[in-house]
Write a structure and sequence with these properties.
Radius of gyration: 13 Å
Shape: globular
Distance between the termini: 18 Å
Largest sheet: 7 strands, mixed
Helix content: 25-40%
């Protein structure tokens, strides 16, 4: 699963959750926007925040709410819970478990 922050219409960054059925990976992909713009866009979307240029925190409940309507796998909820548990087991949680720490990568179209 990827959370993208991309330059949008009128130079206002857009946040999208894509590849929702691939729960073997989770990262934040940032396009041609500044760190401050990416952070503001994530916060405005209610999905999380940017910690720095390499790390973000995504809100688990908000991520699930944004991704689940797009999911096609019948057991998607179970797979999502497994992804969150796996991340927690590796110490990749934040905000008392309400958030997941993720790597920031350049967006493919940036």
């Amino acid at each position: 699963m990827i959370v993208e922050v991309m330059g949008g219409a009128d130079e206002v960054p857009e946040v999208r959750v894509v590849d929702v059925d691939d729960l073997t990976r989770l990262h934040l992909a940032v396009g041609a926007v500044t760190d401050d713009e990416a952070d503001q866009a994530l916060r405005a979307a209610g999905l999380g925040r940017l910690v720095d240029g390499d790390t973000g925190v995504l809100d688990v409940a908000a991520l699930r709410a944004a991704a689940e309507p797009q999911a096609t796998a019948a057991d998607w909820g179970t797979q999502f819970d497994g992804m969150v548990s796996s991340a927690a087991g590796k110490g990749w949680t934040a905000d008392d478990g309400a958030g997941l720490q993720v790597h920031v990568e350049p967006a493919a179209s940036a």
